[in-house]
Design the sequence.
C-alpha cells in the first residue's frame, strides 16, 4: 500500500508531506497544497495505468498454387545482392538498386504469394516526364542526372509491403497548465494552475504500410505515400508483365516494430489534438493496447532510378499510382565554381560599365 511519504507532487515531481497546520498535503518545493481525497484519486489513477501492448497475427500472404510460378524467374545482382522477380521473357536488365548488371538465378521459391496488388496507373513516359521536370533548370546538378539515356533507365518495380490492420485502445495522461495574470497598484501577479488531464479512446487502423525490402529506405517509401487501397485487386502474376518485383527480405514479424512505432505515433498525435485550452501540455504517460491485429502482403507500384555520384547513391522514386515523387540532387562543385566565376565576372563588368558611364558624364 502506498504511504503518505511516497506521494509525488503532480506539479513538480517532488516528495510531498502532510502539513499539520493546514491539515493538507503540501509540496515543500513548489508550495502547492493538496486535499487528501484528490491525492488518493490521483494515486489510484497512476496505479491503474497499463503498459503498451502490441500483439499481432502475422500470417500474411498465401502459398503459391501449382503452376502459378511457371515462367517466373528470380534475378540476382552480383554487386549489391538484390533479388528481383520478373518473367522469363524479360530482357537483360540492370539492378534497380545499384544499376549494375543482374543475372538469372533460377526459379524462385521460399516466398509467399501476395494477397493484393495495386497495379501501375502511370506509365514510364509519365515517370520520365516527372523526372525531367525535376532536374529542369537546376544548373548546378551534375550532367549525369539530366542525361536522357540515363533517365530512360528508370524502372517500374513492385515493392513488397506488409499492411497492418488493428484496433487500438489509448489511455494517455498529460500535465497541463493555465496561467492567469493581473496587477494592482504595487505588484504584477502571475498564477499558474496545474491540471492532470486524461484522455481515453479507441481508434481503428487499416493498412498501415511497412515496406518489406531492406534495400528500400523506409523514409523514402513513406515519403511517396499515400496509396489508394480502394484500387487494389487480388494478386495475379499477369500484373508483373513488363515490370520488376522486389523480392521481400524483411518478413511480417520483422516489420512489426516499425508498424508499432507508426501506430503509436499516430495515436498519440490524434489524442493530443483533443487537449485544448491550456497554456502548456506535457505527456506524462501513454498506454496503447492493440487487438484484432492482422497483416497482409501487398505489392505497391514504384518508379525507381538510382544514380551514383562521387561514391554516393541518389534516388528518384515516384508513386506509380498517384505520381507523388521524391528526388534528391547533389551540387556539381565544378559547375558551382564555374557559375560563381561567371556571375562574378558579369557583376564586375556591370560595375565597371557603370563607373565608365559616370566618368563620361562627369
Sequence:
Amino acid at each position: 500500500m502506498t504511504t503518505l511519504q511516497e506521494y509525488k507532487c503532480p506539479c513538480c515531481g517532488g516528495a510531498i508531506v502532510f502539513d499539520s497546520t493546514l491539515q493538507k498535503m503540501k509540496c515543500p518545493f513548489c508550495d502547492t497544497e493538496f486535499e487528501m481525497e484528490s491525492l488518493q484519486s490521483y494515486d489510484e489513477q497512476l496505479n491503474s495505468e497499463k503498459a503498451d501492448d502490441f500483439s499481432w497475427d502475422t500470417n500474411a500472404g498465401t502459398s503459391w498454387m501449382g503452376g502459378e510460378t511457371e515462367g517466373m524467374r528470380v534475378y540476382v545482382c552480383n554487386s549489391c545482392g538484390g533479388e528481383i522477380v520478373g518473367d522469363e521473357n524479360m530482357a537483360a536488365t540492370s539492378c534497380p538498386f545499384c544499376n549494375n548488371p543482374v543475372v538469372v538465378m533460377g526459379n524462385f521459391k521460399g516466398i509467399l504469394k501476395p494477397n493484393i496488388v495495386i497495379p501501375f496507373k502511370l506509365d514510364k513516359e509519365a515517370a520520365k516526364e516527372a523526372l525531367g521536370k525535376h532536374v529542369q533548370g537546376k544548373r548546378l546538378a551534375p550532367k549525369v542526372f539530366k542525361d536522357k539515356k540515363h533517365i530512360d533507365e528508370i524502372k517500374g518495380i513492385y515493392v513488397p509491403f506488409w499492411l497492418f490492420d488493428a484496433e487500438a485502445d489509448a489511455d494517455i495522461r498529460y500535465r497541463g497548465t493555465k496561467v492567469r495574470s493581473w496587477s494592482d497598484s504595487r505588484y504584477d501577479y502571475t498564477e499558474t494552475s496545474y491540471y492532470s488531464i486524461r484522455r481515453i479512446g479507441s481508434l481503428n487502423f487499416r493498412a498501415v504500410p511497412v515496406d518489406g525490402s531492406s534495400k528500400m529506405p523506409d523514409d523514402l517509401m513513406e515519403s511517396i505515400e499515400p496509396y489508394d487501397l480502394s484500387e487494389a485487386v487480388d494478386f495475379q502474376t499477369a500484373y508483373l508483365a513488363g515490370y520488376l518485383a522486389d523480392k521481400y527480405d524483411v518478413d511480417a514479424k520483422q516489420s512489426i516494430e516499425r508498424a508499432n512505432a507508426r501506430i503509436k505515433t499516430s495515436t498519440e498525435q490524434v489524442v493530443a489534438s483533443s487537449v485544448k485550452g491550456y497554456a502548456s501540455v506535457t505527456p506524462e504517460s501513454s498506454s496503447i493496447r492493440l487487438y484484432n491485429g492482422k497483416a497482409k502482403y501487398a505489392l505497391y507500384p514504384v518508379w525507381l532510378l538510382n544514380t551514383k555520384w562521387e561514391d554516393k547513391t541518389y534516388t528518384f522514386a515516384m508513386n506509380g499510382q498517384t505520381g507523388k515523387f521524391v528526388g534528391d540532387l547533389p551540387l556539381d562543385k565544378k559547375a558551382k565554381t564555374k557559375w560563381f566565376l561567371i556571375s562574378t565576372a558579369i557583376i564586375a563588368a556591370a560595375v565597371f560599365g557603370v563607373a565608365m558611364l559616370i566618368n563620361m558624364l562627369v
Remarks:
- DSSP finds six helices and 14 strands in the chain.
- The radius of gyration is 30 Å.
